Amino acid sequence: MTPQDASRRTRELCGLAPVIPVLVVEDAGKARPLAEALVAGGLPVLEVTLRTPAALEAIRAMAEVPGGHVGAGTLISAEDVRAAKAAGATFGVSPGATDALLAACEEEGLPLLAGAATASEAMRLLARGYDMLKFFPAEASGGSAALKALGGPLPQVSFCPTGGVSPGNAGDYLKLSTVPCVGGSWIAPADLVTAEDWGAIEAKAREAAGLSG
To answer: Sorted alphabetically, which Gene3D superfamilies does this protein's record hold (predicted)?
Structure first.
């Protein structure tokens, strides 16, 4: 997969809903009903972070949910990429980008939302052919004001801000012309997942699906 094809696909995914839920799944047995609740609430694109032993099994379960697009987050190495693809991930997300990681995604045909926080990082990825990126860590890197400033010299690059994004500031990002969506973890908080309160999570998803700039 070429970087241009990868960016085209990630741009399509980022255009499906204003929020991509960022999920830390501790119990793979709850993965499918969690995904079903989020998709039913209008958030079809899901990122499962590879931060728990259950993550790959959770991706496998979520990949079977009709209407969902499940990706693997926190991709760091080529091994992560291969494991995520084998588990059924249809896209990847990384906090940054290395040549080895980009090459692995291109070789495996896994569209990557690569992370960038500075103009130099964004320019380097753009030069390789990636123009749909993750802005991370968003709030710690200056928030919507910093991203607006980056959009001046780099209007051809779009971003999905993630890291510190909440219902209170999501609209500030979404009003930027370079931001089709944001990534957020508030939609599926651990207490609701533990309680298996899928109705409450679906309601949070529906609220998030209605966000705009």
So the answer is: Aldolase class I
| SS3 per-residue string spanning 33-49 | HHHHHHHHCCCCEEEEE
Find the farthest-apart pair of alpha carbons in the chain and give their distance in angstroms, rounded. Answer: 46
Q: Residue 87: its pLDDT value, please?
A: 98
DSSP 98: -
Quick one: how far is CA 90 from the chain centroid? Answer: 12
Report the SS3 class of residue 165. coil
Which residues of the chain are under the pLDDT cut of 50?
none
List helix spans (H) across the chain: 3-14, 31-40, 55-62, 78-87, 99-108, 119-128, 143-151, 170-174, 190-194, 198-209
Query: Is 148 a catalytic site residue?
Result: no
Question: CA-CA distances (angstroms) from residue 113 to 18, 158, 167, 198?
Answer: 15, 11, 22, 28
* Tens-place pLDDT, residues 41-70: 999 999 999 999 999 999 999 999 999 999
Please tell me the predicted confidence (pLDDT) of residue 32: 98
Residue 139 among the catalytic residues:
no
At residue 29, the pLDDT reads: 97
CB 185 within 8 A of CB 21: yes
Q: Which of 36, 47, 106, 202 is catalytic?
A: 47
Q: Which amino acid is at 30?
A: K
Residue among 36, 134, 202, 204 flagged as catalytic: 134
